[in-house]
Design brief:
The complex is a heterodimer of chains A (249) and B (324). Chain A has 249 residues and is an alpha/beta fold. Chain A is built from six helices and 13 strands. Chain B is an alpha/beta fold and 324 residues long. Chain B starts with a strand and ends with a helix. The chains are: A alpha/beta (249), B alpha/beta (324).
C-alpha cells in the first residue's frame, strides 16, 4: 500500500501580509515558506502508520504543484521521513488547476490513500482534496481527525457538528485531514536533512486542466477602531454596550 | 435558469444558517432575474420545507433515500450536481461548514465549475462574476473572479443575515437515480453530544485561556455562556493541559469560528489564536495585562482580573435577560 500526501507551500502564519502597489498580488518578498500546517500533520500521521505497519505500507510520497521555489519545503518533508517527492512544475492559479494536475499525475501513478489538508492557510480554498477525489472518481472523507489501517479496511474518524463519526471507505480514497490527525508535527533531525538531499524529487510537467478562477485584487481588512476600555469596577456596563451600541445581543 | 442552494438539515430540521443561505441565494437570483431552487437531501417534513419560502425559495427538490442518513460526499455531490444541470443553474450555493467543505468541491468538478470558498458578501459584479472572500484566515481579503459558466460558492457563516420574503414554494420529490453502488461511506459508530451549543454554529462565544488559572474556575464562563445562549471555546494550552475538551480549542490548529461576539477571558491574543477568531464581528478581551496583544484586536476591553470581572458580567447578563 502506498500513501500520497499533498503539500501546499504557504507563508508562515506569523508573516505580516503586504500587498503589491497595485493590490493585484500579495507581496512575497522575504516570506518564510513552510509546509501548510495540516499537511505537516497528515505527513506525520502517514509516517506513524508506515512505521507500525510492518511493511504493509511500502512508500510515502509527497506531491506539490508549484514552481522551483517550493523545493526547500518539499525537502523538509523528505527530511522528516517521506520516501520520495513529486513536483508538478507550474504556478497554479486556483484549486481546480491544482487538483486536476495532481489527478492527471495519479492516473498513471496510482496510490491507495491520498491525504490532503482541510485548508491552505494562505488562500483558504478548502477544495483541493474534494476536487481531487472527484477527478479520480474515488470516495472522499472530509474533516478527518483519525486514520488507521490496522484491520482489513482503513478506519477513519471525521468531525461532524457536535461530535464525531467513525467510518470506513474502500481504497483508493482521499482523506481530507484536520485537527487531531496527529498531535505535533515531526521536526527534521540532522541525519534526516542529510538523507533528504539524496532522496528522489521528480519534477514533472503539468498535464491537467487550467484554472477556472483567478484572484483579481487583494485588500486589507478595515483598520479596527481603537479598543474601547470599560471600567473593571463596573464591568456589567459591557452587557449594556453589547446590546445598545454593538447591537449584538 | 436558476440559483441552486443546498439546504442541509440536521435530523430533519433546518437551522438559522439554512435560512441565511437561502436569503443569500435569493439575493443573487434576484440580481440575475432567475429562480431560487433549494435542494434538500434526506427526510424533511413539509412544514419545515415550507419555511424556505419565507426567505425566497420558490421550489425545493427533495431527494430521499434511506442511505442519505450517512453523509457520502460522492453521492451527495451527484444529487446536487444533477439538480444543478437539470435546472440550468448559473450559481450553486453552499454553506462553508463541514458538509459544504466535504461536498461543494466535488460538485464543482462535476459541473466543471470554478469555486470560491468562504465568500463574505454578495458578488461584487456578475459579469464578470467576482466575489469577495477571506484569505489568510481573515488577515486579508481577496476578490476572486470565476470564469466558468457555472459558479460554485460557499458562504462564510454569519456573514449575510436573514432577509425575509413573501412567497410560496412547490415541493418536488427528486429522484437522483442513485443505485447502491454509488454509496461507499459506511458508518461504524457515531458519537455526538446533544443539547450542547455547537461551537462552529454559535453566534456568541465565551472563551477561556491560561489566565483562568485552573479548570475549576470555568464556572462563571459556563454560567455566562448559558445565560447568553453562547458556545464555549478555549485557547490551545487549555485544551493541551486537559482543562477543557479538545473540541473547544480554537485557533490556527483548532477550529476557525466567526461568531457575532467573542469574549476572551484570560487569553493573551497570540497570532495563532487570533487566526481562529479574527473574523468574529465583535471581540471582547478581559486581561490583567495592559500589554496583552488581544487588546489590539478587541473592540471592547476590560483591564482586570477574570475572578472579579466574570461574576459582574454574569450578574449584568442575568438582569439584561430578565428585562428582555
Ligand atoms: C504552530 C503553532 C500553532 C498554534 N496554534 C494555536 C491555536 O490553534 N490556538 C491557540 O490558542 N494557540 C495556539 N498556539 C499557541 C499560541 O502561540 C499561544 O501560546 C496560546 O494561544 C496562549 O494561550 P493563552 O492566551 O491561553 O495563554 P497565555 O499566553 O499564557 O496567556 C494568558 C493570559 O491571561 C492573562 N491573565 C493571567 N491571569 C489573569 C487573570 N487573573 N485575569 C485576566 N487575565 C489574566 C495574562 O496576562 C495573559 O495575557 C500555537 C502555537 C504555535 C507555535
Ligand atoms: N499547490 C498545491 N500542491 C499540492 N497540494 C496542494 C496545493 N494546494 C493545496 N494543496 C492540498 O490541498 C489542501 C487544501 O488546500 P486548499 O484547497 O487550497 O485550501 C492542502 O492542505 C494541501 O494538502
Amino acid at each position: 500500500m502506498k500513501i500520497l500526501v499533498c503539500l501546499s507551500n504557504v507563508p508562515d502564519t506569523t508573516t505580516k501580509i503586504k500587498l503589491s502597489g497595485d493590490k493585484s498580488a500579495v507581496d512575497m518578498t522575504g516570506v518564510q515558506w513552510v509546509i501548510n500546517p495540516w499537511d505537516e500533520l497528515a505527513l506525520t500521521r502517514a509516517l506513524d502508520l508506515k512505521e507500525k505497519s510492518g511493511g504493509k505500507i511500502e512508500k510515502i510520497t509527497v506531491i506539490t504543484v508549484g514552481e522551483s521555489y517550493t523545493e526547500p519545503t518539499i525537502r523538509k518533508a523528505l527530511a522528516v521521513g517521506a520516501d520520495d517527492a513529486v513536483r508538478i512544475n507550474m504556478m497554479p492559479t486556483d484549486d481546480y488547476e491544482v487538483a486536476s494536475n495532481i489527478a492527471a499525475y495519479l492516473k498513471d501513478n496510482p496510490y491507495e490513500i491520498v491525504l490532503s489538508g482541510i485548508e491552505s492557510s494562505d488562500y483558504n480554498g478548502s477544495a483541493v482534496g474534494g476536487m481531487l477525489a472527484e477527478f479520480l472518481k474515488v470516495p472522499s472523507v472530509s474533516s478527518v481527525s483519525f486514520l488507521d489501517i490496522e484491520g482489513e479496511e482503513p478506519i477513519l474518524k471525521r468531525e461532524i457538528p457536535g461530535g464525531t463519526e467513525t467510518v470506513k471507505v474502500p481504497v483508493p480514497f482521499v482523506a481530507i485531514v484536520q485537527k487531531g490527525i496527529a498531535l505535533d508535527p515531526r521536526i527534521p533531525a540532522m541525519r534526516g536533512i542529510m538523507m533528504a538531499r539524496k532522496k528522489p524529487l521528480t519534477v514533472v510537467e503539468p498535464t491537467g486542466e487550467s484554472a477556472k478562477s483567478t484572484f483579481i485584487e487583494f485588500g486589507m481588512p478595515q483598520p479596527k477602531a481603537k479598543v474601547k476600555m470599560i471600567d473593571p469596577e463596573n464591568a456589567g456596563e459591557l452587557i449594556t454596550l453589547l446590546h445598545e451600541e454593538a447591537k449584538i445581543i | 435558469m436558476s440559483v441552486i442552494v443546498y439546504t442541509e438539515n440536521w435530523d430533519g430540521k433546518f437551522k438559522k444558517s439554512s435560512y441565511e443561505l437561502v436569503s443569500y441565494a435569493h439575493a443573487i437570483a434576484t440580481e440575475l432575474g432567475v429562480e431560487t431552487i433549494a435542494v434538500s437531501i434526506g427526510q424533511v417534513a413539509d412544514d419545515q420545507l415550507n419555511v424556505l419560502a419565507n426567505y425566497g425559495a420558490t421550489k425545493v427538490l427533495c431527494a430521499i433515500n434511506e442511505k442519505f442518513t450517512v453523509l457520502d460526499n460522492a453521492a451527495y455531490a451527484s444529487v446536487i450536481a444533477r439538480a444543478a444541470k437539470a435546472n440550468n443553474a448559473s450559481v450553486v450555493v453552499f454553506a462553508n461548514n463541514f458538509t459544504g467543505k466535504a461536498v461543494a468541491p466535488r460538485v464543482a468538478v462535476k459541473l466543471e465549475a470554478g469555486m470560491a470558498n468562504s465568500v463574505t458578501a454578495l458578488p461584487i459584479s456578475f459579469d464578470p462574476f467576482v466575489v469577495p472572500k477571506n484569505i489568510s484566515n481573515g488577515k486579508a481579503n481577496g476578490k476572486q473572479q470565476i470564469n466558468s459558466e457555472i459558479k460554485v460558492i460557499s458562504l462564510a457563516q454569519n456573514s449575510f443575515g436573514l432577509k425575509e420574503n413573501e412567497g410560496t414554494l412547490t415541493i418536488e420529490a427528486y429522484d437522483a437515480e442513485l443505485d447502491d453502488s454509488k454509496f461507499s461511506t459506511q458508518l461504524v459508530e457515531k458519537n455526538t453530544v446533544s443539547g450542547k451549543i455547537i461551537l462552529t454554529d454559535a453566534e456568541l462565544v465565551v472563551s477561556g485561556g491560561r489566565g483562568m488559572k485552573s479548570p475549576d474556575n470555568w464556572g462563571p464562563i459556563e454560567e455566562l455562556a448559558s445565560i447568553l445562549g453562547a458556545g464555549i471555546a478555549c485557547s490551545r494550552p487549555v485544551a493541551d493541559e486537559g482543562w477543557r475538551p479538545h473540541s473547544e480549542h480554537v485557533g490556527q490548529t483548532g477550529k476557525v469560528i466567526a461568531p457575532n461576539l467573542y469574549i476572551a477571558c484570560g487569553i493573551s491574543g497570540a497570532i495563532q489564536h487570533l487566526a481562529g477568531v479574527n473574523s468574529s464581528k465583535v471581540m471582547v478581551a478581559i486581561n490583567t495585562d495592559p500589554e496583552a496583544p488581544f487588546f489590539e484586536a478587541a473592540d471592547y476591553g476590560i483591564l482586570g482580573d477574570v475572578k472579579t470581572v466574570l461574576p459582574q458580567l454574569v450578574e449584568a447578563a442575568k438582569k439584561f435577560k430578565a428585562h428582555q
